[in-house]
Amino acid sequence: xxxxxxxxxxxxxxxxxxxxxxxxxxxxxxxxxxxxxxxxxxxxxxxxxxxxxxxxxxxxxxxxxxxxxxxxxxxxxxxxxxxxxxxxxxxxxxxxxxxxxxxxxxxxxxxxxxxxxxxxxxxxxxxxxxxxxxxxxxxxxxxxxxxxxxxxxxxxxxxxxxxxxxxxxxxxxxxxxxxxxxxxxxxxxxxxxxxxxxxxxxxxxxxxxxxxxxxxxxxxxxxxxxxxxxxxxxxxxxxxxxxxxxxxxxxxxxxxxxxxxxxxxxxxxxxxxxxxxxxxxxxxxxxxxxxxxxxxxxxxxxxxxxxxxxxxxxxxxxxxxxxxxxxxxxxxxxxxxxxxxxxxxxxxxxxxxxxxxxxxxxxxxxxxxxxxxxxxxxxxxxxxxxxxxxxxxxxxxxxxxxxxxxxxxxxxxxxxxxxxxxxxxxxxxxxxxxxxxxxxxxxxxxxxxxxxxxxxxxxxxxxxxxxxxxxxxxxxxxxxxxxxxxxxxxxxxxxxxxxxxxxxxxxxxxxxxxxxxxxxxxxxxxxxxxxxxxxxxxxxxxxxxxxxxxxxxxxxxxxxxxxxxxxxxxxxxxxxxxxxxxxxxxxxxxxxxxxxxxxxxxxxxxxxxxxxxxxxxxxxxxxxxxxxxxxxxxxxxxxxxxxxxxxxxxxxxxxxxxxxxxxxxxxxxxx
Length: 671
Fold this sequence. Notes:
Largest sheet: 5 strands, mixed
Shape: globular
Low-confidence stretches: none
Number of strands: 16
Strand content: 5-15%
Mean pLDDT: 90
C-alpha cells in the first residue's frame, strides 16, 4: 500500500519505479545472504549467494524491468524461509515469519504464494523426517494461518473465474513461456538464449538469457560425495524445495488459469545458488581430482553447446561466456589442489568468493553488452506523471476509447492525448479501457477489448446499432457519455500482435458521422472526442426494463442499487442494470437472473411486486467466509505470539526462582 501511494504521488515515474526496483533487488540479495548464513555458510560464500541470486536471468530481464510483483514476492521469500526456520526451532517469535509470509501472499502473485507453500512443505517435511514433532507442529500452525490468509486473497478470484477470460480448466502445453531441460542445461551460460516462444517476440527462442542461473553451479563437481551423504540430512529442506521448484518450472505452459511456468525461475535460481554455496561450505573435497575438473568444465562445455544449438547466431557471446567460466573453474581447481595463485593467502572460502564475484561481474557485463534491454514490450510512457493526469481531465461521465493507442507513435505526443491500460488510473476521467487481461468474457467480446485496453475500429459502428435483446443502442446500454476516437486505428493493414491481442485486417474502416444526440468536442485530425448532448448518468444504474414493466431508481452506490416497482407486466418482468454480472450480486425482493445481452446484470421483477422496493447489492463471492477465516488466522497468530511471550516469562521466572546447580555453586563460592 505504501509503495502504491508513493508511486501515485511521485512526479517522476522513472525515478521512483527504478529506485524501488533497485531497492528490492538489494533487499532480495540481502535476504539470500542471510538465508545462506542461517545454513552456517561462511560470510564470503554467503556474499556470493547474495550477489548472484538477484542476477538470475528471469529477474533481470523480466521481473525487474516489467513484472515487478514477481520481483517483490521473490525478494521477501528468503526472509520468510529464514524466519520460519527460526520460529519452528523456537528461536524467534512466529509473528515475524507470519508477517513476511503475509506480505508475500497478499501481493497476490501466484508464484510467490506457491513459493511460500513450498518453503512450508520443505521445512515441515524435514521436521517430520527428523521426528522433531514440536518443530513440525509450529511449522504446520504457521502454515495454516497463511493458508487462511491466502483464502481471502484468492477465493473471490477463483469463484469469479467462470465468467472471465481465464475460465479454462484445461491442462495444455503450447510451449509459451515454458521451460524444458535443454534450456536448463545451458543455465550456467550467462548469454544463452533458450527455446521459449511467447507473445512478445517472434521465433522460438527468447531474445534474452531467461533461464540463466549462475555460471559457478558446476563447482559442485569439486565436492566430496562422502561428505555430501553425511551432510544431506542438514539440508533436506533445500533439496525438497529445489525438487518442487524444478517440477513447477517444468509444468505445461497452461494449467487451468495459471500460465507461464518460467515465472518460477527466480525461485529455482535462488535455491540452486543456495544449495551450491551450502555444499561448497560443508562438503568440499580437500583435493578435487582431475576427473572432477573434467566434469565441471564438461558441464560448461555442454551448456555452451546447448546455448549455441538453440540460438546459433549468438555463437560468439555464448562461446566467450563459456570460456570465461571454464578459465575460472580451472583456476579454482588449481587453488583447491594447494597450488599457488595470487589469492593463496586468503582462506579457501574467500578465494572461491573473490573469483566467483569477479567472474559474475564480468559475465553480467557481457550479458548486458549482448542483450541491452528486456524483450518485453515498452510503450515509452512519459516519466512525468503530470502528463497522464492531464489527459481528459475536464471530461465528465463514462469514457470509452475506440481504437488502439499502440497504433500511434509511442511517445509524449500520443500519451498527452490518450493513455494505455492502467495509466488511465492517473487520469481523473472514468475510462473503461483499462487493463483487461482477466476481464469479463462477454463484455470484452462485445467491446472487442484487448488486454491493454485497446478496441477494434468496428466498435464505433457497433455502439450505435440496436441490440437484439433490448432494442437499445450499445452506447446506451453501457451508459457511455463520451467517446474518444483514435483515427489511426481505422486505417488499413492492422496486424495481430501480442500488444493488441486482436485479429488483424487489411481494409480501412470509415469513421462514421456524429450521431444524433451527440456532438464533437474536439478533433485534431488524429484523435477526436464526442460527447452526449445530455449525459445519461446511467452507469451502474437502471438501463432497461422489459415491456409492461416500469421501475424507478431510488438509490445508487458503488455496490448497491435500490429500485421502486411502479408497474409490472402480467407474468412478471425483467430489468437490466449497467453493471457487469460478476458472481457475488444478491437481490432483496427479487432474484438475480441470467444476464441481459450477455453482459448486463439482470433481475426478475415479480408479477405482484408493484409498489414494493427491490435492491441489488454486491459482495465479492466468498468474501464473508474469507474475512472470517482471515480473522481466525491473524487472530490465532497473535494469540500464539502472546502465549509464547507468557511462556518465555514463566521460564525466566522459574530460572530465577530455581537456579541451576552450576549457578548455586558459583554463588556459594563467591566471596
